[in-house]
Design brief:
48% of the residues lie in helices and 20% in strands. A hairpin with a 2-residue loop joins β11 and β12. α2 packs antiparallel against α3.
Amino acid sequence: MSDMKLNRQQEPLLSVRNLCQYFGTTKAVDDVSFDVMQGEVFGLVGESGCGKTTTGRSIIKLYNITSGDIYYKGARIAFGSMARKKEISSLRKRFFGADADEKVRIKKRIAQLKREIRQGKHDHENCDKLFAERKLAEVEEKYQPLLESAYGAELEKIKRDYQHDKDLAKKTRLTTQIQMIFQDPIASLDPRMTVYEIISEGLVIAGEKNKAIIDEKVYKILETVGLVREHASRYPHEFSGGQRQRIGVARAVIMEPELIIADEPVSALDVSIQAQVINLLNRLRKQLGLTVLFIAHDLSVVKYFSDRIGVMYYGHLVELATSDELFRHPLHPYTQSLLSAIPFPDPLYERQRKRIKYDPLEKHDYSVDKPRLREVLPGHFVRCNQQEFECYQKELNAK
């Protein structure tokens, strides 16, 4: 369990708490916690297979999470009961050897855990339904005064708009406000659909039936991402890799999300095209007020684009800090190893550059004192045990 604290001056847009995603015996993500604040770019880095993509897919509910809680705008959108069920099982084993007072405490704790499981399942299953009801209530509140005060042709138009917005509100989903840009610009686009169909599909699923509105939004978003209207009638195979990724960006942004999960959106592209796509995301972020969870393994790209960075290793979040702080004071040995691998365009420097090798068995002894995510400095978290925590603080004080 981590000791991460929320920033009370600003409630997070996305809050991940003790997320576990297991596939059989494989612990793809194990006890990961972090917050993403409104308007920021949160970078998630690490080597291939460390759990970055699985974390993103769990947040957007492509997987049912094994354990933990995921909150979006304060509402729980995903829940996993494994940790609580394990605790109940452990408490029941302790119950028979406990004294009378301890048995009372165990019963209370088990009852509390069962309530939490019931509530968590309810939130997980009903978050979209409750959100749709709120949106419907907002539509009613907006249009009722207008319907009462209008008449004639104006009233007929307001009635049409009211019915249109009401139909959309009924089909809206909270998780639609989170969209994902996938890593592979080829595999993520249906080769049998035109660009128009690919980009407009989300609008149709969300209940939009007015073709004029769909046309307007599709053509506008194509121009926004640097394509042209004529591209709408073409198929994905007719485009370059960079253009395909722009189509993927358009498909996500047309839904007007508040949070974009960008899963290594430039790793499959040439370096020159990478810069274009990153600049596009940066422009859209500022233009549309987007919040971005940026998943990558290229630390140079992440440093340029991210406000804060979380470093993952073997399913664990091992370090979290602002971009400048992480590059200035990397504390976890794995973070230091990653930073030492960044090439520099200077042959003299490259000849002298030394790679730092990370061997967890050599660097850590967690046989007795288990690690958890601890706040070494305000806003700078490191996964460590108590002994390492004290060493990190001495190291920082000495600088």
